[in-house]
Design a protein that fits this description.
The protein is an alpha+beta fold and 208 residues long. It has a domain of 123 residues: Aminopeptidase, CATH 3.40.630. The chain contains six helices and nine strands. The protein has a nine-stranded mixed sheet with strand order 1-2-3-4-5-6-9-7-8, with helices on both faces. β3 and β4 form a beta hairpin. The longest helix has 11 residues. The two termini are 24 Å apart.
Length: 208
Amino acid sequence: MVFALPLFASRPFRIMRPAELRIDVDPSKGRPSEPLTPVHERMRALEDRLRPLHLPAQNAPDLRARYREADGELYVYIEDIRHERLVGYTVFNRLIELGRRADRHIRAPHSQYDPAYQRRGLATAVYRWALGSGICLMSGARQSPGANALWQRLARSHEAGFVDLRDKRLTYLGAEIDDATLGELHTRMFLLGNGWTLARFGQEVQMT
């Protein structure tokens, strides 16, 4: 799996109408930081595989971002080095629902951040880094309100749209869809990484 794609300035995309993909995942109403502890321990065990990552939105000298790649998936970790704790992480997962061609280019991000460090633009910066690296993102079947708001913000600067995903096939639904279609479990939102056009995306992932 190779993510070394050319980095071009992304073409501005018109703002989509407000939309929500099955917002039935409560973002925990403030998850405790304890669940991040075992992740931090596993991350430390892989210290030699981590690479530095500069995120402009960090705006804090005590925060350090690093990432690693394993089996085609990317893991981004942000630590508070002063307090020796994991702030949060984002995993860019492969989707088993995708066919082989689409799997080469699309990842589905999943994030968890300590409530004390939320609303600081960290997840946004991580997503922008992935999109800027030429990775195309696709939502899962469900989103939390926070995740949905993040995707809507990113859609202002990266071309976005909706697809129907079933039987490992992608069918393009358009940049705007009706509420009934939006509520279907097979409906997913996508964001195109830098250097991509909708035409190229459709060809590469065999989208009909």
